[in-house]
Every structure is written in structure tokens, then in C-alpha cells.
């Protein structure tokens, strides 16, 4: 249980460090910063387990010895948080829709009401500008051109969606 | 740090359950293309969570090889840990990968460009094949079919609280860690 507990404690500690770091002096590339921070936490956790193992001369730590479980738990929970965090940087249209609906209460909204807020520019072109910023697409001034990195992502998802028998998505 | 059979069994059962879930969800989604992908994912995931929990429960109650030398309480903790790993694996896959293909606008834009002649398009061409009308229509359809919105004539109203709760959680996270600039 100590292994699992220390894994959860490490997650909470890294998360608190992340909140402090990102509030005080956020890194330029935030997701990369987050990956580095959780990686440091992983190294510290492994070191802690190795040290605890030596201290106990190979005996189980805390009754149930589950170091691999604790490490996998840490990695998967970190990944889950990073996935959730990416939604903080980019507003999801579905989240915007339900938040707008809540504001309107019983009055609700029509499709036209929603379209006044959710425009081609903020739903589509903003995402295109993101793709240009990360180098998946280039902007020639008159056209958007797919770059090798973007083509690779498009092909991987085309194969995956083909396997599922699903359409273009989006 | 000493690995042992119980530890390996936790990681192993979670991984095997997850692999079966992957195979089953592909089969179900392919065989029922018109039904909700979300329901197929939830049903496939729940089936193997139940089987994983059942296997650990059987180990705890019946004992026997290969974990005969571990007390039932250790096996119970291991079973809960296995379910937690399986849940996280499934969450990471569904939200971090499946959802990208299903709803991510960036992936759709890349795929539209990949299909275009010369893999290039003007902004007008792009907006003819993928635009805000399509995006809002698709979201409203998903939110209505999952019960998060209800529709009365041409008016949509809040129908469920699950997705609203997730959206509010994101708002809370944003207040803790302000994003660099408002992006949609």
C-alpha cells in the first residue's frame, strides 16, 4: 500500500508544483513543460523505491509490494492529467455549448443563437493557425499547404479510423 | 525495488483486459456503425472491467495457484489496483486517442488537406468542406443523443449534468492555471 500511496502522493506533489510554476512563470511550451515535470517526478519515485528496497534488504515495503503497479499508475495518471490539461488551452465547442446553455437557463438557445458565438474564425481558422504555428501546415499567404509532419498525422488517423470503419470525424 | 508475482499479475491483468477491450470495441463499432460510438466504448470497457474484477475476486475467495502464498487482503488490494490501472488505460486511450479521431478539429483539417489536390487549399476551399455549421451540428447531435441536451422545436436546453460538470471542472482548472490566451 505504501508503494501505491507514494505514487499518489507524488502525483499530488507534482500537480501542486505544476500549478505554482504555471501561475508564477509559465513555460513557453506548456505541454512540454508538464511532460518534463511529470518525468522528474517519475525519476524521483523510482529512486525512492530503489532506496526503500535497499533499506528493507529486499523485503516488501508496507506489506503489499507493488512497485511496478505504482509506477504504471503514476505514468497513466500523469498522462490522463496532461490530456485533460490540453483541454484547458483549447476551448472545446461542446463545453462552450453546455456552458452557454447553462447561462441561458430555461430560455435555451437555437442553432442560430449558437452560430452567432461559434464562428468559422474561432472554430476553424483558429485551429488552422495552431497547425501553422506547430509546423504541421504552412501558410503561403493564399493557401494552406500540408507539411510532412501534418501528412504523417493525417495518414496515421486515416488508417486508424479506417480500422474502426468511421468517417472523417471532427 | 523487487518485482513479484502479485505486482506482475496486477499490471498483466490490467494490460490483458485493456487489449481485449481494444479488440472488442473495434468489432462492436465496425458491426454497428450507426449506433453511438460512446455507448460501444462504455459497454466494451465495462465488460472487461467486470471480468477483471471477477478474476481477482475469484483469486481472493478461491485462492490457489499462482498467488496461493499471498493473503486475501493483499490480493484484494491488488485487484483494486488492477482495476485502477485498467480504468486509467481505457481513459487515456478514449480521451487521448479515440476522441482525437472522433472530434478533434485539427485532425479533421489535416485529413481534409491530405485529401486535397496537391495537399493544399485556400481558406475558402477549406471552409466549404469543414465549417462552423458542421461543427456545431455535430456537437448538438452528440450532446442530444447522449442526453446532455434536450431539443424542443428549434430550441436546445440543458438536459444532463455530466458534461456540464466536466465543463465546469475545466473552468475551475482554468481559474487555477490561466491559459496563455483564449483559444477556441
Structural key phrases:
heterodimer, A: 170 residues, mainly alpha, two-stranded antiparallel ribbon, 5% strand, B: 184 residues, 3 strands
What is the fold's blueprint, element by element?
The complex is a heterodimer of chains A (170) and B (184).
Chain A (H helix, E strand, L loop, with lengths): L1 H23 L5 H26 L11 H23 L3 H12 L4 E2 H7 L2 H14 L3 E3 L4 E3 L1 H17 L6
Antiparallel strand pairs in A: 2-3
Chain B lengths: L4 H27 L5 H26 L9 H32 L1 H11 L4 E2 L1 H7 L2 H14 L3 E4 L2 E4 L3 H15 L8
Task: Please give a structural write-up.
- The complex is a heterodimer of chains A (170) and B (184).
- With 170 residues, chain A is mainly α.
- Chain A has seven helices and three strands, in the order ααααβααββα.
- In chain A, strands 2-3 form a two-stranded antiparallel ribbon.
- With 184 residues, chain B is mostly helical.
- Chain B is built from seven helices and three strands, in the order H-H-H-H-E-H-H-E-E-H.
- Chain B has helices at residues 5-31, 37-62, 72-103, 105-115, 123-129, 132-145, 162-176, and strands at residues 120-121, 149-152, 155-158.
- Chain B has a two-stranded antiparallel ribbon with strand order 2-3.
- The termini of chain B are far apart.
- The model of chain B has no long low-confidence stretch (mean pLDDT 90).
- The interface between A and B is large, with 90 and 90 residues.
- Strand 1 (109-110) of chain A pairs antiparallel with strand 3 of chain B.
Amino acid at each position: 500500500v505504501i508503494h501505491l500511496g507514494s505514487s499518489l502522493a507524488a502525483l499530488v506533489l507534482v500537480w501542486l508544483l505544476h500549478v505554482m510554476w504555471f501561475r508564477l512563470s509559465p513555460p513557453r511550451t506548456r505541454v512540454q513543460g508538464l511532460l518534463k515535470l511529470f518525468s522528474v517526478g517519475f525519476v524521483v519515485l523510482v529512486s525512492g523505491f530503489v532506496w526503500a528496497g535497499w533499506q528493507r534488504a529486499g523485503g516488501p515495503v508496507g506489506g503489499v509490494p507493488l512497485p511496478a503497479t505504482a509506477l504504471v499508475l503514476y505514468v497513466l495518471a500523469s498522462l490522463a492529467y496532461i490530456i485533460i490539461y490540453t483541454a484547458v488551452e483549447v476551448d472545446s465547442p461542446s463545453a462552450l455549448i453546455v456552458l452557454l446553455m447553462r447561462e441561458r437557463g430555461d430560455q435555451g438557445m437555437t442553432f442560430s443563437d449558437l452560430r452567432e458565438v461559434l464562428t468559422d474564425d474561432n472554430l476553424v481558422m483558429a485551429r488552422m493557425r495552431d497547425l501553422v504555428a506547430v509546423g504541421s501546415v504552412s501558410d503561403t499567404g493564399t493557401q494552406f499547404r500540408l507539411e510532412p509532419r501534418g501528412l504523417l498525422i493525417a495518414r496515421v488517423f486515416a488508417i486508424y479510423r479506417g480500422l474502426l470503419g468511421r468517417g472523417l470525424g471532427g | 525495488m523487487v518485482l513479484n508475482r502479485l505486482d506482475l499479475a496486477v499490471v498483466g491483468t490490467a494490460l490483458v483486459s485493456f487489449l481485449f477491450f481494444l479488440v472488442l470495441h473495434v468489432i462492436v463499432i465496425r458491426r454497428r456503425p450507426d449506433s453511438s460510438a460512446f455507448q460501444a466504448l462504455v459497454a466494451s470497457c465495462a465488460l472487461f472491467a467486470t471480468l477483471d474484477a471477477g478474476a481477482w475476486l475469484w483469486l481472493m475467495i478461491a485462492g490457489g495457484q499462482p498467488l496461493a502464498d499471498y493473503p486475501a487482503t493483499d490480493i484484494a488490494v491488488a485487484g483494486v489496483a488492477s482495476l485502477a490501472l485498467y480504468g486509467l488505460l481505457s481513459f487515456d486511450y478514449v480521451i487521448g486517442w479515440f476522441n482525437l479521431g472522433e472530434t478533434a478539429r485539427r485532425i479533421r483539417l489535416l485529413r481534409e488537406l491530405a485529401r486535397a489536390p496537391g495537399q493544399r487549399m485556400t481558406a475558402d476551399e477549406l471552409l466549404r468542406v469543414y465549417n462552423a455549421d458542421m461543427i456545431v451540428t455535430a456537437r448538438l447531435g452528440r450532446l442530444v443523443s447522449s442526453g446532455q441536451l434536450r431539443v424542443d422545436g428549434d430550441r436546445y436546453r440543458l438536459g444532463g449534468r455530466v458534461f456540464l460538470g466536466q465543463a465546469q471542472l475545466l473552468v475551475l482548472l482554468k481559474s487555477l492555471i490561466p491559459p496563455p490566451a483564449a483559444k477556441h
